[in-house]
Design brief:
The structure holds 2 protein chains of 2 kinds. By secondary structure, chain A is α/β, with parallel strands linked by helices. Chain A has 21 helices and 8 strands. Chain A folds into 3 domains: 178 residues, P-loop containing nucleotide triphosphate hydrolases (Rossmann fold), CATH 3.40.50.300; 122 residues, no CATH class; 133 residues, no CATH class. Chain A has a 5-stranded parallel beta sheet, with helices on both faces. The longest helix of chain A is centred in the middle third of the chain and has 20 residues. Chain A is flat and about 90 Å long. By secondary structure, chain B is α/β, with parallel strands linked by helices. Chain B has 3 domains: 168 residues, Rossmann fold (3-Layer(aba) Sandwich); 275 residues, no CATH class; 107 residues, no CATH class. Chain B contains 32 helices and 10 strands. In chain B, the strands form 3 sheets. Chain B has a 5-stranded parallel beta sheet with strand order 2-3-4-1-5. Chain B has a 3-stranded antiparallel beta sheet with strand order 8-10-9. The radius of gyration of chain B is 35 Å and the shape is globular. Chain B starts with 24 loop residues before the first helix and ends with a strand. The chains are: A alpha/beta, B alpha/beta. The interface between A and B is large, with 67 and 72 residues. The complex binds adenosine-5'-triphosphate and magnesium ion. Adenosine-5'-triphosphate (ATP) sits at the interface of chains A and B. Chain A: Keywords: ATP-binding, DNA replication, Nucleotide-binding, Nucleus.
Chain lengths: 458, 743
């Protein structure tokens, strides 16, 4: 069981599953299972472990005896590419010329490979994409052993359980292997195995920044013990494990935060044994890092400024031409008012009586009917322009430049087309995608009061 | 040239004349004789050569400036890309699925950014071994086309620049070229291509020796590093325009292949980083590592261009206040397009010089002196017709000289150098004192005169500054300032102006004359300022040895003592702090200073165009309406004009209208139908319309029911054309009715 050992050394906490897999695809005389369905949540190591396992198995066997194709189905926008990708790795002779038109060709090709004792494995990552291909692909892939007459096993790797793969033409039940999520202690163990990498990262960072006393600092880093690192990880997971279970996210953040943790030590401010002080030093930075977890800011300098989740900041940082801003405001008004109200809002001499009626109606409305909560309604380009001209005090011509602003806003995803996208004219319908807060902010910049024109606030 | 000067409002295309860019080879072949003729005719004219010179130097200047301002960010990005390609150097080491990505926040105008990304591409190629592929959203309507375009671009652009190719190398290239069809491009091809080209050990022996393996000596990780040494950079210049599902799949693909192909993604994001997070769900963002870079925003860039290039005292060409404002208005209010602004500016430049050879004088001083002798009689007449020429003539009180100047070309030519010189100096002084005034008024509360130089510039070119309420407001605020503030402000204005003199003016022609004038004024101002400082100081004991009681000699003494401006400023500040008592004397001296600035600087040198020296029209372009007509597309207005009054464009004799809603039988059918439809409501009854149409078109009096089929056909056609133009659409609700689509 050498393979098992090498793999589990690299990837701790997966011993049971690796053993199971090796049993399934081990190299004794039995036939392979027809298919294996591997599923589990993201970051549980499906892709990585299977890849390494297969690579290792190939390495230990002769390639003529053990042949592996690892293909990611995302790329396969047509089944043809999927087949060609598989065929290419399996039929190694003059690899570039592979041409496989369809399933029939593919099976035919596999049949030609027929040799006595070669074993084939086809691993398909993101296998859920197979469902989007022609209806015959998934069932046939699962019966490929039978169809090709080879000693062949298909491994489906996906995040979805098998139930999600059932389709009209029934499929053969594959063997199911589940990758469970790691527990906290397992996570700790895995992260702790990453010790050397974190160390190296720290060193290379120091080298890149050309810090002074480089030699000395590297010496310090090299004296860091595994226990010390585990200690750090305990602190780290204490903060992060509640918010994030994703292993790769944790791994990256742990590496990054380790540099923060080490900084006071490298600068000679804190002793390595003084854990509580170290904790005090790093706590703040861990908390900011926690805010940024999942955002993946590979910021070279640890700039904390770009956490612009809230829309006010975005609105402030967004520079739009003046009329662009007004168009956006007009679009917002058009989206959140019904067109019946337009006359009352924008025409100066609307009848008083109507207004009172409106007021009564508005009172009758329940708060949950507030249209700003309901979400944007669509409006026509004509209406947008009409409102634009109504809210803009100055007179501007209806020029190309102005009209092209509309498509700019669409490009920026601030507006979106509901219909008539391909030939924009006065009747094409649009929708405003930004929120009230954002618009209020924009309109403050141009000195305009939106609320005045929103039915909800009148 | 005459052949193009026409009464009609057509616009003339000067092929290749305006821009020195080379057209495609095919275009060049197709160029007909006429155009070439025209071109040679024009390019021989003196005004044309002045124009090209001016434009070239402007263009170079702008390019320089822009590349400078991009440099910092671009360097950062390149640095990042470079770093990511060295294995073991980053926090995602041994995680083979995480693609490094840089988000470049570019600001809203997307078409402009392509240039920026082209520069970035160049920089990356200069700095490191990499292939760069610019993937635009229009190429990515499906995942298939996205991948195909990307792969194709990578393979293709590597072929365009064969890296020191050997003979064998070319062989492989040829084989590649033959085989490569777009539909065959897929990731597998890319992997093969990459292996063949950049990873030697993987490949069969026969192609092994192309390229250079110089990486070996660098590090013990040589193997690893060679593997990753050639980066594949994918640039998505318009991130927001991408279909998100396609983008997600594309990123997943890149991530899946990252183990084999070292991709680096660069997103051009127009809005903010959150656009990236909105477009990509977690399972995709977890496959990229994002790093955010900011570039200068477009308004800042524009300001830089305006202040450093367009308003630079180096160039003789100026825009009038209105024209200047018009161009900046388009920029700020409509599109934020720097490119558009520059093109608009260039258009003004062309229009200006195209007015005639007299305008060849609009260049720097010596060049214009050389031009004088080339002036023909007509050109001189053209000068005489300039608006500002008349006041000049009137100001001469010698009859003989007046006659000479009006009739004798040579006499006028002799006079020209002096006149031109005055103009040059006028504009230079204007620019210099613009600097002064900007500092003085730019940061007042609410900025009545505007914060930027550009605002102030267009303001004082178009209006008499002194009479404007905004100006008075500014002056009032200045006079209410505390002593500290006032003194520091004015001395800062002085020092900024002096800096400007030293950095921008010194190397120019006529600098001497300007400098003497300016220095004189500034000196007088300094003296006045000293008085301000001294005011209210008298009652104090004269312990301040340096600042003796305010005698006329004091300023002199001060001037000698303080060699550097910094010294003087500090000293003044210090002194004013010591004596902070507001006194009437202080107010008086402030008023005096302000009055001096107003009378001696603003009225004298910052005159509006109406008071500018004679012949300033040669240097200033002010025809806003022409520019507006030509660079602002108003399709709706143009169509309305064309249909409502065809005569405007056709210039035919038959369609002249006495009033705009007149209907003539001679008008084109489409026009008649259009004008009739204008009179209708939302719904148009086709039969009524036809009848009205017939009554206009068919002059024979016909009460008979039957409509002439010919007329009916004409009507049908006109209606179809109106529908095509988008004015009407056939109603589905009511038969035989059309709906109007315009209001
Ligand atoms: N047991 C383990 N030991 C060490 N590292 C692990 C282990 N399990 C997962 N990892 C690491 O976690 C990261 C994510 O793993 P991987 O990409 O294989 O997950 P996945 O299940 O394929 O996720 P997805 O479903 O999103 O594709 C990898 O960098 C891998 O090295
Ligand atoms: Mg995976």
């Amino acid at each position: 069981m050498d393979v098992c050992k090498t793999i589990t050394e690299k990837f701790p906490c997966r011993k049971k599953i690796v053993k199971e897999l090796i049993n399934l695809i081990s190299y004794d005389e039995e036939m392979f299972p027809n298919a294996i369905h591997i599923h589990g949540h993201t970051g549980t190591g499906k892709t990585t472990i299977i890849k390494h396992l297969l690579k290792e198995s190939v390495r230990r066997n002769n390639e003529n005896v053990f042949n592996v194709a690892f293909v990611n189905c995302v790329e396969s926008y047509s089944s043809r590419i999927l087949f060609e990708n598989i065929a290419e790795t399996l039929c190694s002779e003059n690899a570039e010329e592979v041409k496989v038109e369809n399933l029939k060709d593919f099976v035919e090709r596999l049949r030609q490979l027929k040799t006595e004792d070669t074993r084939y494995i086809i691993a398909l990552d993101n296998a859920e994409r197979l469902r989007d291909m022609e209806a015959n692909v998934l069932p046939s892939i699962l019966r490929l052993q039978e169809l090709s007459g080879l000693n062949l096993c298909v491994i489906l790797i996906t995040q979805l359980p098998l139930e999600k793969f059932y389709c009209k033409t029934s499929i053969d039940e594959p063997i199911i292997v589940y990758f469970p999520q790691y527990t906290k202690s397992e996570t700790l163990k895995i992260l702790s195995a990453d010790f050397k990498n974190a160390q190296n990262l720290l060193i290379s960072q120091l080298q890149r920044n050309k810090t002074e006393n480089l030699e000395q600092k590297i010496d310090v880093i090299n004296t860091v013990s595994r226990d010390f690192f585990n200690n750090y990880l305990n602190l780290f997971l204490g903060v992060f494990y509640k918010a994030c279970r994703d292993l790769s996210e944790l791994k990256i953040t742990a590496r990054k935060c380790f540099t923060y943790y080490m900084t006071p030590i490298l600068e000679g401010n804190v002793d390595m044994s003084d854990v509580s002080r170290l904790w005090r030093c790093v706590a703040g930075q861990l908390r900011t890092a926690l805010m940024q977890v999942y955002i993946r800011n590979g910021q070279p300098k640890s700039g904390a400024e770009l956490n612009d989740k809230d829309s006010v900041k975005i609105a402030q940082s967004l520079e739009l031409p003046y009329y662009g801003k007004y168009l956006l405001i007009a679009a917002f008004i058009a989206s959140y008012n019904s067109s019946k109200e337009d006359k009352r809002l924008f025409v100066k001499n609307h009848g008083k009586r109507r207004k009172r009626m409106q007021a009564v109606n508005a009172k009758a409305k329940v708060a949950e009917k507030m249209s700003t909560y309901i979400g944007p309604k669509s409006f026509s380009v004509d209406r947008l322009l009409a409102i634009f001209y109504a809210i803009l005090e100055e007179k501007v011509g209806l020029t190309c430049n102005l009209l092209s602003q509309i498509s700019t806003l669409v490009n920026l995803k601030l507006l979106s087309f509901v219909s008539g996208e391909n030939s924009m004219d006065g009747t094409s319908r649009l929708q405003c995608t930004v929120g009230l807060e954002f618009i209020v902010c924009i309109s403050q910049v141009v000195g305009f009061n939106v609320r005045q024109y929103l039915c909800d606030f009148n | 040239m005459d052949s193009t000067i026409s009464v009609s409002k057509g616009c003339f295309v000067f092929k290749g004349a305006a821009e020195g860019k080379k057209g495609g080879a095919i275009k060049r072949k197709l160029k007909d004789d006429n155009a070439t003729n025209l071109q040679t005719q024009i390019s021989k004219q003196p005004f044309y050569s002045t124009y090209t010179d001016t434009w070239r130097s402007l263009e170079i200047h702008i390019d320089q400036l822009q590349s400078q301002s991009y440099t910092k960010t671009l360097e950062d990005v390149v640095q990042y890309v470079e770093n990511e390609c060295i294995v073991g150097n980053t926090d995602t080491y041994d995680m083979e699925e995480i693609v490094p990505a840089a988000a470049l926040l570019t600001g809203v105008n997307q078409p402009d950014h392509l240039e920026q990304f082209a520069t970035l591409t160049q920089r990356i190629l200069e700095k490191m071994s990499a292939s760069v592929c610019m993937l635009q959203s229009r190429d990515c309507s499906t995942l298939k086309s996205a991948v195909e375009t990307m792969v194709y671009n990578f393979i293709e652009c590597a072929q365009e620049r064969p890296p020191q190719s050997d003979l064998e190398d070319e062989d492989t290239e040829k084989r590649e070229r033959k085989r490569l069809r777009r539909t065959q491009c897929n990731m597998r091809q890319l992997v093969h291509w990459y292996r063949r080209k950049y990873i030697k050990p993987y490949h069969n022996k026969d192609n092994e020796d192309d390229g250079v393996d110089d990486e070996e000596e660098h590090s013990p990780h040589a193997k690893q590093r060679t593997k990753r040494s050639h980066a594949l950079v994918v640039i998505l210049p318009d991130f927001e325009c991408f279909n998100t599902t396609i983008l997600q799949d594309l990123i997943l693909i890149l991530s899946a292949y990252y183990a084999h192909l070292p991709f680096v993604l660069i997103f051009g994001v127009a809005t903010s980083v959150s656009a990236v997070h909105n477009a990509l769900p977690y399972h995709v963002t977890s496959k990229v590592k994002l790093c955010v870079f900011k570039t200068q925003t477009a308004p800042v860039c524009l300001n830089e261009i305006l202040e450093r290039v367009i308003l630079s005292p180096k160039y003789a060409f100026h825009l009038s206040g209105k024209a200047f404002k018009f161009l900046t208005h388009i920029f700020l209010y409509y599109d934020f397009s720097i490119h558009g602004f520059i093109q608009g500016y260039k258009y003004c430049l062309m229009e200006h010089f195209f007015q005639g050879n007299a305008y060849a004088l609009c260049s720097n001083y010596t060049a214009s002196l050389n031009q004088i002798k080339n002036l023909s009689h007509e050109d001189v007449e053209c000068i005489r017709r300039l608006l500002s020429f008349r006041p000049y003539v009137e100001s001469i009180n010698d009859c003989k000289r007046i006659i000479a100047i009006l009739t004798d070309d040579n006499y006028l030519k002799k006079k020209l150098p002096q006149l031109l010189r005055d103009c040059h100096i006028h504009f230079m002084l204007l620019r210099i004192f613009l600097e002064f005034l900007t500092v003085l008024t730019g940061d007042l509360p609410k900025c009545p005169l505007g914060k930027q130089r550009r605002e102030l510039y267009s303001f004082c070119l178009s209006k008499e500054l002194r009479d404007q309420p905004e100006f008075k407001e500014c002056w009032q605020m200045l006079s209410f300032m505390s002593k500290d503030e006032f003194v520091s402000k004015v001395s800062k204005a002085i020092s900024v102006t002096e800096d400007f003199l030293h950095s921008e003016i010194v190397d120019l022609e006529l600098a001497e004359d300007c400098m003497t004038t300016v220095n004189e004024k500034l000196q007088a101002l300094k003296d006045l300022l000293t008085k301000v400082v001294m005011s209210g100081m008298d009652e104090k004991s004269p312990t301040n040895s340096t600042a003796a009681p305010s005698t006329p000699a004091t300023p002199e003494a001060n001037k000698q003592k303080f060699t550097s401006r910094q010294d003087l400023k500090e000293h003044l500040l210090q002194m004013s702090k010591q004596h902070n008592k507001p006194s009437s004397e202080y107010a008086q001296s402030v008023a005096q200073t302000l009055l001096y600035i107003q009378n001696e600087i603003i009225i004298k040198y910052m005159a509006p165009l109406t008071r500018s020296p004679p012949l300033h029209e040669l240097f200033v372009y002010s025809d806003v309406s022409t520019v507006r007509r030509h660079i602002i597309g108003a399709p709706r207005a143009a169509l309305h004009m064309a249909l409502n009054n065809p005569h405007y464009y056709l210039q035919c004799k038959c369609c002249q209208l006495s009033e705009s809603n007149q209907l003539l039988a001679t008008l084109p059918d489409l026009s008649v139908a259009y004008k009739l439809h204008l009179e209708c409501g939302r719904m148009i009854n086709l039969f009524d319309w036809l009848q009205a149409f017939r009554s206009v078109v068919d002059d024979i009096d016909n009460e008979q029911e039957q409509v002439d089929p010919q007329i009916q056909a004409r009507f049908t056609r006109a209606v179809a054309e109106l529908q095509f133009l988008g004015y009407i659409k056939m109603s589905k609700r009511k038969t035989d009715h059309a709906t109007r689509l315009t209001w």
